[in-house]
Structure formats: structure tokens, C-alpha cells
Design goal:
mainly alpha, 7 helices, single chain, Lytic transglycosylase domain-containing protein, signal, 2 domains, Lysozyme-like_dom_sf, globular, Transglycosylase_SLT_dom_1
């Protein structure tokens, strides 16, 4: 089913945007022309969608919880979060954000790509998301 069909079937614009974003994330499509207001009003469902993707990618509960705590502190599960002073970007606040291109060309908007890159980073630098969270707690960054 196409994203436009989903949008036509749902009466509420907010629900239509949420359904379209979920469909796009599920199929790997990127929505780039949504108005800023609509994106802001759907932030909670975008966060929920990103969390659901992370749950699938990180089946171990302890590792998911540690990853989630880092992301909550770093970006509040906002895929397009940008640190105004450093320029760090995305769910895991990569610096520079373009580093995430190694996980996929859609790194700016795809939570799965950002999660994949973040997991690789945490595993290679700290050994696991739990170890990264332990470091974050001791230092306030990771």
C-alpha cells in the first residue's frame, strides 16, 4: 500500500502524517517535504517509531535499556536533533553527523540508519551499549 493511500484513508492530518512516517520508516523511504509544523506535532509518534525500530535491532533488554537511556539524554529520540554549539546530530549525536553516512545515505532522517551507526559506535568504542551507558554516567558524555 502506498503512503498516499494510507494518508487518504485516515481522516486526521496528524494521524495521516504518523501513518505515512511509519510506513516510510518501515519500507526505508524518506519523507522530505513534510511541513515543519506537522513534523513538530508528530514528534512523540516519531520517537515511539524510533524506539520500536531500536527494540527490533537490540533484542537484549539490558543493551536496549542502556542504548535508550543514552539516546534519551542525547536527543530525546529526535532523529533530527542538532546541538547548536557542537553540530552533533541525530539520535546518538554523532559529531560530525555525516559520520553516520557509513551506515547509509539516508542518515539524516532514517532512525534505523542512525541506530545501526550508534550501535556500531558503542560496540567498537566501549564494547556494548551497557558499557557506553556506564561511561556516560561517569562522564556526562560518551
Amino acid at each position: 500500500m502506498s503512503v498516499s493511500r494510507i494518508a487518504r484513508r485516515i481522516a486526521s492530518p496528524k494521524k495521516a502524517l504518523t501513518a505515512a512516517a511509519l510506513a516510510a520508516a518501515t519500507t526505508g523511504l524518506v519523507l522530505t517535504s513534510a511541513p515543519a509544523q506537522a513534523a513538530t506535532s508528530s514528534a512523540p509518534s516519531s520517537a515511539a517509531s524510533a524506539k520500536a525500530i531500536a527494540h527490533k535491532m537490540i533484542p537484549d533488554a539490558a543493551q536496549y535499556n542502556a542504548f535508550s537511556k543514552i539516546v534519551e539524554h542525547e536527543s530525546g529520540w529526535n532523529v533530527t536533533a542538532t546541538n547548536a554549539s557542537s553540530g552533533a546530530y541525530g539520535l546518538v549525536q554523532a559529531l560530525p553527523g555525516s559520520k553516520m553516512a557509513s551506515a547509509g545515505a539516508d542518515w539524516k532522517t532514517n532512525p534505523a540508519t542512525q541506530i545501526e551507526w550508534g550501535l556500531d559506535y558503542m560496540n567498537s568504542r566501549y564494547g556494548s551499549p551497557v558499557a557506553a551507558w556506564n561511561f556516560w554516567q561517569a562522564n556526562g558524555w560518551y
